[in-house]
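hi!! sorry for the late reply, been swamped w classes. u asked for the two structures so here they r. pasted raw, havent cleaned anything up. first the sequence of the first protein and right below it the tokens
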Amino acid sequence: MDYLIEFTITIPDDAPPAEIEQRLAGETTRVAELAAQGHAVRIWKPLPEDGRRRALGLYHATSHEEMEAILDSLPLRPWMEISVTALAEHPNDPAVGRMSAANGPTTGGRKTAMDDTRDRQGTQQREAIPEVIWDLVDRIAITDEAAALRRLDDFRGLADMARRAAQRDLALARLELALRSRR
């Protein structure tokens, strides 16, 4: 089941700088692990920026209990306000409604474009791409091979994007701490 998660992070004013750095670095590592496991699918920064540390995430879990356990495993969890919305397919979802003249609807167990691509790629190249990436691309039911390959590139960069975002957040937290200490 997919979940839309809204996060608002409030770092306590009295939090020791070492703890802030440790939690921010731990968050980066944990989100990358969750992405590799197929749980953290996408993460966005909501606009407009309003000065708060906010994020929206698309997560996947097999149950509500697993989703809660995933959220509780985040190092910043004690400083987070979280809103969880379980998601279901909508009959007007363009990804679900796309039809292929040869294969019919994109859901229902038919072979996907990523399966076709996987079949044509060499063993070495397939092994270089984690299976969780293939599963994510299959789950979003892409029928166009070119679009599937572009999406695969997006997923390959997901861990790098999460790492860079966490490094940026860590730098901002350090700057915030430096500014606090000057007051």
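now the second protein. again sequence first, tokens right under
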Amino acid sequence: MPLHDCPPESGPLQILEGSHRFGLTDADPATGCISMATALGGEWFGGPINAGDVLIFNSLTVHAASPNFSSQLRISLDCRFQDYERALDPATLVFPGKSGGKSWEKTYANWRSDDLKYFWKRIPLQFKPSKSELEQLAQTADSPLMRSRFARILSQLESQL
């Protein structure tokens, strides 16, 4: 949901038509992103979106921001919902890439209340892949990039959860 008007030159969100029908799409292990060139689906659709507009789509829908050619920063709200009884990919709780020193401690550093910090630690989450599967993947994944990615996810899980 954009918090300001986002005309085409500001790089609004675009979605890949029908991509949700192809199931979970593998991300590039080096970037953690899905390549627009290789993602399966129809045509890319996007256009202007205005403050308060809401775009709802399936979590399997491949999506990306258009290039931002303006001097305006895009600011939006992203909400995701999942039943905590369903398995959760642990990569969604850690920071992507090399994370540049990002951490939940830094994210929460200036919060005035502790009530919602680390809320997921109080929920009996099931991870898929599990921590033991991540350990094995960090040793046996096909490419060094994937082994590194699984090791990083595992390391962040252990230090932040």
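hope this helps!! also noticed smth abt the second:
DSSP finds three helices and three strands in the chain.
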